[in-house]
Write a structure and sequence with these properties.
about 170 residues; five-stranded mixed beta sheet; three-stranded antiparallel beta sheet
């Protein structure tokens, strides 16, 4: 895992606290978030941290039938809602409205972590995570990522692993 300076204030996010409580090995990565960046949060993180963008995963909150679901997939891909729906065994899934996602997770968009959400949501982790020894996910705020083994992330979130992303291989 890459070494970065220890964060000053973000060390107590709910995501990091959940990892510490569970005694899960992880590495915290802090970078300066540029609100003017047009890269998107995940691509900005990959560039700032100097890691392969396909190893950086975003958390998208979706809604299926009447419950929210965390979809965790590489920033180099887009969510395949049909594949997500099939994985969930429902007719149709959609992106959750931003306000609902923020309220339900306790995080802001661009900083939504699959870990330490206000209340746990069903989590689906894209199968491409298994290609890596570690992946990076949001640590609960913009400019903060957590490096963690995919198996540890899946265990802590009780994630189902499935192919839910359409990957862009041009990266």
């Amino acid at each position: 895992m890459a070494t970065m300076a220890k964060p000053t204030s973000p060390s107590g996010t709910p995501a990091i606290l959940a990892l510490r409580r569970a005694e899960i090995p992880h590495q915290v990565h802090v970078y300066r978030h540029d609100p003017r960046s047009d890269l998107g949060y995940g691509m900005e993180a990959a560039r700032a941290l100097g890691v392969d963008p396909s190893q950086v995963f975003k958390t998208l909150m979706t809604i299926g039938e009447d419950s929210l679901v965390s979809a965790v997939l590489p920033v180099t891909g887009s969510l395949d809602l049909r594949a997500l729906s099939q994985t969930l065994g429902i007719r149709r899934a959609a992106m959750a409205p931003v306000a609902q996602a923020e309220r339900a997770t306790g995080y802001v968009v661009g900083g939504i972590s699959p870990l330490g959400q206000r209340r746990p949501h069903r989590t689906i982790l894209d199968s491409s995570a298994q290609r890596f020894e570690t992946i990076l996910v949001s640590g609960g705020q913009r400019g903060l990522d957590i490096e963690i083994a995919p198996s540890d992330l899946a265990a802590l979130t009780h994630a189902t692993i499935a192919t839910i992303a359409r990957l862009d291989t041009s990266y």
